[in-house]
Amino acid sequence: MITMAKKANLLFFFVFLISISCFTQITYVPDDNFEQALIDLGYDTPPLNDLVPTANIANVVSLELSEKSIQDLTGIEDFKILTNLNCSKNQLDILDLSNNLNLVEVYCSGNNLTSLNVSRSTELQRLWCFGNNLSDLNVMNNTELISLRCENNNLNELDTSTLTNLNILSCENNQITDLDLSSSTSLARLLCGGNFISNLNISSNYMLTYLSCENNQIASLDVSNSKNIKAILCQNNLIDRLNLSKNSNLLNLNCSNNDLCKLDLRNGNNGNLSLINFSNNPSLTCVLIDNAIGNHSTWQPENYTNYVTSEKECGVTVPVDYLNNFIGSNYTLPYITYGNYFTASGGKGSLLYAGQNITTSQTIYIYNEINCFDNESRFNVIITDDDFIIPKFFTPNNDGTNDTWQVFDVNHTVKNILIFNRYGKLLKTIYLNSEGWDGTFNGYPQITDTYWYHITLNTGEVLKGPFTLKR
């Protein structure tokens, strides 16, 4: 039974609380370790009562809370102008910073975080959240980020498409399958090892100096645009060829345990390669370097000796079939022994098959590859009802199309062809079964201009006319 005295005391207590709330705003801090940390920092006074005067924390810009055994950061939302927060190595499961709009640096590594909300912290430049249990991380609104460390989590994906200022990205040891870095053109350090990435495109990352992408499923790696790179760690992948000829600043390379069959180190600065490991690549026939007789004693494997300066020295001969040019109304691709038919050079374009009927004029390539070494031939197919064709132009730019000027003569009526420049100087004599004129004279490319042909037929008749060389 409540006595009148107790009623009076309760009434006094509630009136006291109401009077406090009228004059003093209170922040609710239910975690005792969090409140104790605030007491230690001078923002609260004993005893622990889950309440902190909001005025005491309203102007705090930096908060050091690491290793305090904190489980709940409720109350952090009232640190309105907070710019730096370190709550690393606690026991946090959830970290909601959606009301902390001025944050510049957040360090929350080594917790048990499954949820992290920094979506409204648009000024954030440094976010270190590694060593948690995050399966999702949204940094789309954090466009000012310079450094992002989210390694050792459970991330399946990471969207960095808006992070144009990113300089350091570490997302190692997650479950990421794809990483789009095309917008992060300022990226200098990339650590993405220990994921499930099969395709890593760094063609836009011109400023890259350090790349660690080991323990993935990468089959192809092009670092030709990253000319400032000093270290490449790409071991334990599926890479079959690695061309480092553009990377003259390279100091450290580990490409061991891949499927390499070609490694090109001819960057003009092999003497600076102090640490290099290409061991456990059983298909690697030879290694291309600047100087085959240099000192490679620090390179691994130590007993490797097949260093060469050119592909020819590797001793790999790739056979390929050759076919004559064709002109006529219908053409069927014949069966070949060495190589496959393609519509573009280098085994690119569409794959064509023996027995396939060719209905349009085109250049067809026969491409063959053995252990990263390749060989190629090509021939022209002209589909026409005419028996004799004189091209009006050609473009000798080594793109595989119209690279030579050649008369197509089905019935072999041509005896020879003379080619003159506009001043009457003889530049080339072409005979039957010749590959035509490649646009050079004594090894020097001729300029874009009009040239003249004199075609002598077997009958003695001479055909004359102009054609154009275009570059």
Automatic annotation (TrEMBL):
Gene3D superfamilies: Ribonuclease Inhibitor (3.80.10.10)
Lineage: Bacteria, Pseudomonadati, Bacteroidota, Flavobacteriia, Flavobacteriales
Domain of life: Bacteria
Name under which the protein is recorded: T9SS type B sorting domain-containing protein
Keyword Repeat part of the UniProt annotation: yes
GO molecular function: signaling adaptor activity
Coiled-coil residue windows: none
Keyword tags: Leucine-rich repeat, Repeat
